[in-house]
Design goal:
Blueprint lengths: L2 H16 L20 H7 L5 E3 L6 E3 L8 H10 L8 H16 L7 H12 L4 H15 L5 H5 L3 H4 L1 H6 L7 H10 L3 H15 L4 H8 L9
Antiparallel strand pairs: 1-2
Helix pairs in contact: 3-4, 3-5, 4-6, 6-11
């Protein structure tokens, strides 16, 4: 071996010895993102909702009969607010979604296409509190009318990617698991519950569409 080759090899070894090994960059799958839309907050601050908080800020009161509301206008707005984390916006949005779904009946189904982007945006914040609130809203949505579950199936490709990221996240130590179960803030369990409801109420095409987006999901119908 020539002196030049030996010298080159020595230099390479010295460089490798002194270099710092840098791992691959973090993918950021769990990194929180801010909400894409602040439309809900803007409407709230302008006083444009027919709903108000009680003085103790622990309840809400509608100024009109919920059944008389324009669901195409107000239900997407309340779903838009699911991405909020600050009080009173977060509470106000959750309460609005809950009340409108509870009293909506046949008015809910035609609005489904308008709810998909707000749902997707809320889930894409990657905020655990927001995801849990959105999963609970989805569960109530599925149960709110006869064919609502089936109407959601074509939108699984927009809704379920975040499910696949967080489905294995569990609260598994100390008092946290008790608190998480009481408040239903265990993302992994809520995702499993929601997928089961999607399959159960989504009709014959639900399972194959869930399986395509969440490969580890096992059918609840077997």
């Amino acid at each position: 071996m020539s002196r030049e080759v030996k010298s080159t090899m020595k230099a390479v070894k010295a460089t490798m010895k002194n270099s710092v090994v840098v791992g691959p960059p973090a993918a950021g799958a769990f990194r929180e993102r801010p909400p894409k839309s602040r439309t809900f907050r803007m409407f709230y601050e302008c006083g444009d909702f027919p709903m108000a908080l009680h003085r103790n800020a622990k309840g809400s009161q509608w100024r009109v009969d919920i059944e008389q509301l324009d669901y195409h206008h107000y239900l997407p707005l309340f779903f838009n607010g699911l991405g909020e984390t600050e009080h009173p916006y977060e509470f106000f949005a959750r309460q609005g979604v809950h009340d409108m779904l509870e009293h909506g009946g046949t008015k809910i189904l035609p609005v489904i296409p308008q709810l998909i982007i707000p749902i997707k945006n809320a889930l894409n914040t990657r905020n655990q509190q927001v995801i849990c609130n959105t999963l609970k809203a989805l569960q109530q949505l599925v149960m709110s009318g006869g064919t609502v579950g089936e109407a959601l199936v074509p939108y699984f490709r927009q809704i379920l990617p975040i499910f696949n990221i967080f489905k294995n996240m569990k609260i598994n130590s100390g008092d946290g698991i008790v608190y998480g179960q009481q408040k239903r803030q265990n993302i992994g369990e809520l995702i499993q519950e929601t997928l089961v409801m999607f399959e159960r109420y989504g009709g014959k095409d639900a399972f194959i569409n869930i399986k395509y987006m969440v490969p580890t999901y096992q059918s609840c119908m077997v």
